[in-house]
From TrEMBL:
It comes from Alteromonas alba. The keyword Transmembrane helix applies. The keyword Transport does not apply. This is GGDEF domain-containing protein. Residues 25-274 form the EAL domain. Keywords: Membrane, Transmembrane, Transmembrane helix. GO terms for molecular function: cyclic-guanylate-specific phosphodiesterase activity.
C-alpha cells in the first residue's frame, strides 16, 4: 500500500510498511499535540459566493498550522490526527475558534455563516450534538450562523447512527452539508433520507468538468438531483471563468474557489463579505 503525503516540498510517497512513514506520523502527532497546547494553530476563512446575485455571506473555516516556519497541510495532518484520536481535541479547538469568530462578526452586526469541517470520529462521538447545543448557548449566536460539513463517507459508513445525530443537529437549527460529494459510494437513496441542507461537489469533479464530458455529466446530475430533493448545491475548487459559467448554467447555488477567493485570515475575509 502506498500512501501519498503532501507538504510544501511536494508529494511524498511512503510505503505503509515503511519506517519513514511511521516516523513522520509520530513526529506530526507529537508536534501537533504541542501546537495545540501552545496555541499555534489558526483558522483561515474562505468566502462562498452566491451565484444568482454575487452576494457573499458565508465562508468555510480551514485549519492552518505553521510549525517553526514549515507549513504543514491539513491534508497531511488531519488523517494522522484521525488515526491517533487527536482529532477529537483538535475538533473541539476548531469548534471553539469558529464559534468565537461567528460571535465576533455577529457582534459587529454581520450575519456571516461559518461552515466547519467535522471529521467522522468527532461526529459519531457520543454527545456531539449536545456539544453543539452547548456552544450555541455559550456563544449566544443564532444557529443559522453555523453550518457543519460532514463527509459523505462519515454519513454513509454509519448511516443509522449518522441519521440519528443529523436529526438532533437539524432540530438545533444548524445548517448541514455533505462534503466531498460524489467521491464516496454515494447512495442516492440515502441522500434523500438524510436531513441535510446542502451538498458540496468535490473539487475533483469541478477541476475536470470543462475537458471531461463524464465529469461534466456528474456535476450536472448532482445539481439536478440535489435540486429535485430540495437541497442547495455548492461547488468547491472553482478556479476558472469557464467552470463558473458552466456551474451557473447548471443552476449551482454557491461557489467557492481560488477564482473568487483563497482561504485568508478572518480580518481579510471580512472585506469580501457583502
Ligand atoms: P475540504 O474540506 O474538501 O476543503 C477544501 C480544500 O480545497 C481546502 O484545502 C481548500 O484550501 C482547498 N481549495 C479551496 N479552493 C480551492 C481552489 O480553487 N483550488 C484548489 N486547488 N484548492 C482549493 P485545505 O485547507 O488544504 O484542507 C484540506 C482538507 O483538510 C479539507 O478538505 C478538509 O478535509 C481537511 N480540513 C481542513 N480544515 C479542517 C478542520 O478544521 N477540521 C477537519 N476535520 N478537517 C479539516
Ligand atoms: Ca470542507
Ligand atoms: Ca473536497
Ligand atoms: Ca473534505
Amino acid at each position: 500500500v502506498e500512501i501519498a503525503l503532501k507538504n510544501n516540498q511536494g508529494v511524498h510517497y511512503f510505503n505503509a510498511d515503511d519506517g519513514a512513514y511511521h516516523q513522520r506520523r509520530l513526529t506530526i502527532t507529537r508536534r501537533l499535540e504541542q501546537a495545540l497546547k501552545h496555541n499555534e494553530l489558526t483558522l483561515y476563512y474562505q468566502p462562498k459566493q452566491q451565484l444568482s446575485d454575487g452576494r457573499v455571506q458565508s465562508c468555510e473555516c480551514l485549519l492552518r498550522w505553521i510549525d517553526n516556519g514549515e507549513f504543514i497541510s491539513p491534508g497531511e495532518f488531519i488523517p494522522i490526527a484521525e488515526r491517533s484520536g487527536l482529532i477529537l481535541v483538535l475538533g473541539e479547538w476548531v469548534l471553539d475558534s469558529a464559534f468565537n469568530q461567528a460571535r465576533a462578526w455577529y457582534e459587529e452586526g454581520r450575519k456571516i455563516q461559518i461552515a466547519i469541517n467535522i471529521s467522522a470520529r468527532q461526529f459519531l462521538q457520543p454527545g456531539f450534538a449536545e456539544s453543539i447545543e452547548r456552544r450555541l448557548r455559550e456563544y449566544a449566536i443564532p444557529a443559522s450562523l453555523i453550518e457543519l460539513e460532514l463527509t459523505e463517507t462519515s454519513i454513509m459508513d454509519n448511516h443509522q447512527l449518522a441519521s440519528a445525530v443529523l436529526m438532533e443537529l437539524r432540530a438545533l437549527g444548524v445548517s448541514l452539508s455533505i462534503d466531498d460529494f460524489g467521491t464516496g459510494y454515494s447512495s442516492l437513496a440515502y441522500l434523500s433520507a438524510f436531513p441535510v441542507d446542502k451538498v458540496k461537489i468535490d473539487r475533483s469533479f469541478v477541476s475536470q468538468m470543462v475537458d471531461a464530458p463524464k465529469q461534466q455529466a456528474i456535476v450536472l446530475t448532482i445539481c439536478q438531483l440535489a435540486h429535485n430533493l430540495g437541497l442547495k448545491v455548492i461547488a468547491e475548487g472553482v478556479e476558472t471563468d469557464v467552470q463558473r459559467e458552466l456551474l451557473h448554467q447548471y443552476g449551482c447555488d454557491f461557489l467557492q474557489g481560488y477564482l473568487f477567493a483563497r482561504p485568508v485570515p478572518a480580518s481579510e475575509a471580512v472585506t469580501l463579505f457583502n
